[in-house]
Amino acid sequence: MSSSAKPKIAVVESHSNKLPTLHEGEISPLAANDFEISCLNYFAAKDIAAERQVAVILGCFRSQAVNNWTRPAVSRTRLIALTFSAFMAEFRTKFLRPHWEKTTRAQVLGSRMPENDSFSDWATNVEALHSLLIGTSAELDMNQLRYTLEAGMLPTLATLYGADDTAPAIEKDKFDDWRAAVVVIDERRSFALEENRKAIEHELNLQKRKAPEASDDRPYKEKKVFGEGRKGSSAKPTSTASATSSTSSGRRCPVLTADERKWLDKYEGCNKCRTFFAGHEHADCPNDFPAAEGYKPRTEAD
After folding, report:
1. Where is the composition biased (Basic and acidic residues) (predicted)?
2. H or E element: which one contains 21?
């Protein structure tokens, strides 16, 4: 194994009706705590007398380091004579990292409530971490634990907590009552946040539904045209050029009569615009045909 590899952490294997097993690896404060609790549960279930408790658990270790400590006859005799609590105190001193109590207490004091956690869940985790210190010189009393939880609250919860008259007024030695009151305040906070989230989500959905109607960037075919879509309507958009042509020209004027042709030929006129002395012929006429409305046939008098 390389020197930079992380050490294997010891695991406690618990059994419902048997003693626990502490496996090989680095022993953490949590592993020591789990082992102690499992042993105490076994002692209670099997009614093991106090003077026999250490002797019973010496076979629970699969750790070479622990067995090296308990195997020699002299050590074994001395350890068996200890109470279980004294054995666990010596066990922690020998196998846990130096100053683990200070390190763990610093973690408790520095804990901060995560943004997405409830106060109840976070407080439970802090209490579990603090339980590793029970029986040591680093253990906090209930008032100190309360102050720690107050200091680590989320700002939104701390504001509601400060404005509330129930939880802060509870006597400082009634930790469980105080904790339950803060849980109620936090549940109100969580409910208000959820309602606010739903309102924002609803508003965003409304805006999304309105957005296509307000946009001018849609393709032409998606935009409504006046009269389009009405029952029985066949109106369709027409081009500007077609509309202009239809308006300006109207119906074409009548076909030239024989007399008109005669007079236009005589006076060098144009058969298209029907002007005498026009200076051009039908093929190169720059003008439109005369409008049909109000048209009068050409005569020599013109």
Report:
1. 208-231
2. strand 21-22
What is each CA distance from 192 to 150, 153, 156, 157, in whole angstroms? 21, 17, 11, 11
Distance CA 109, CA 37 (A): 24
Tell me which residue of 123, 96, 118 sits closest to 108, measured CA to CA: 123
Residue range 138-180, pLDDT digits in tens: 999 999 999 999 999 999 999 999 999 888 788 878 999 999 9
Neighbours of 169 (CB within 10 A): 9
The answer to whether 47 and 32 are in contact (CB under 8 A) is: no
Q: Which of 83, 91, 35 is nearest to 55 (CA)?
A: 83
CA distances from 74 to 4, 67, 77, 217 (A): 37, 13, 5, 90
Task: Assess contact for 45 and 39: CB atoms under 8 A.
Answer: no
Answer yes or no: are the C-beta atoms of 82 and 54 closer than 8 Å.
Answer: yes
pTM: 0.62
Asked if residue 62 lies in contact with residue 24, where contact means CB atoms within 8 angstroms, the answer is: yes
Q: How distant, in Å, are the alpha carbons of 55, 71, 90, 150, 242 from that of 78?
A: 11, 11, 12, 45, 114
DSSP reduced 3-state for 291: strand
Length of the chain: 302
Cα 127-46-43 angle, rounded to 5 deg = 35
The span from the CA of 153 to the CA of 295, in Å, is: 95
